[in-house]
Amino acid sequence: MHIGVNRFPLDANGSFGETCVISELDKADINIAFGDVAAVTALAGSNKADNKRNGARWIASSSCLGAMSHLGTDKGESYLHVLSVADIDGGAGVASAELAPGKERAIAEATLVNAMQDAGKLGEMPSLVWLIVAPGNEEEVLNGLHGVLGDSVPIFGGSSADNSIEGKWVQFDGKELHHNGIVVAVLYMSEPVSCYFSSGYEPTELSAQVTAGEGRKIYTLDGEPAGTVYNR
């Protein structure tokens, strides 16, 4: 198995031009891409990631202010970071769907099964799963995946975002661009898989109690608007 990372800038015309070396990316079994909304949207419209035309499968997620890797950190500029995985001995599969209120768990289960089928491994547990999902109901989505996988298969990835966290995030499966969707990739390999979690945050001495909230939304902390408390 071989892993590579590339970083491509979006030009003034809103495209990647000749900077996106497709001949190299086509050698991968799967390309996992990250960038701001503009970069991922440009990727979806470029046909560079056409899963039917090219050998490699693609998935992509927008992120707040872009992405970071050893090649650089985006700070509001439009770049596409691509993690390419090649020579996976068991292959990979991708599937996606639009989410619907109250049906997130069932949709997640079905999307995972479709990804297994895309890999030609229906009924066989993958080595790992990569998840891209619109924010809001991640717990139900994970419950759906665990309902099929159990607890033995690691799940990587996470929620999409945009620069202002205002619902403009996107998810891409190599063919279709979603705004409230789920994308699941399954990878099958003989190499052992391990994982490590680092949040990038440090605790402070400040604390507060939720005094008004509903579902995932926090309205007040210690009787004050939550945004005011968070911004201190």
Task: Note down, in words, how this protein is organized.
The termini are far apart. The strands form four sheets. The protein has a six-stranded mixed beta sheet with strand order 1-6-2-3-10-11, with helices on one face. Strands 7-12-8-9 form a four-stranded mixed beta sheet, with helices on one face. With 232 residues, it is of the alpha+beta class. Helix 3 (104-118) packs across helix 4. 36% of the residues are buried. The longest helix has 15 residues, at 104-118. It folds into two domains: 2-187, no CATH class; 202-232, no CATH class. The chain has helices at residues 22-25, 37-46, 104-118, 138-149, 226-230; strands spanning 2-9, 30-35, 57-62, 68-69, 72-73, 79-86, 92-98, 128-133, 155-159, 171-172, 177-178, 181-187, 210-214, 217-221, 224-225.
Tags for this model:
20% helix; 232 residues; globular; six-stranded mixed sheet; single chain; alpha+beta
Summarize the structure.
Helix content is 20%, strand content 31%.
List the helices and strands and how they pair.
Layout: E1 2-9, H1 22-25, E2 30-35, H2 37-46, E3 57-62, E4 68-69, E5 72-73, E6 79-86, E7 92-98, H3 104-118, E8 128-133, H4 138-149, E9 155-159, E10 171-172, E11 177-178, E12 181-187, E13 210-214, E14 217-221, E15 224-225, H5 226-230
Helix pairs in contact: 3-4
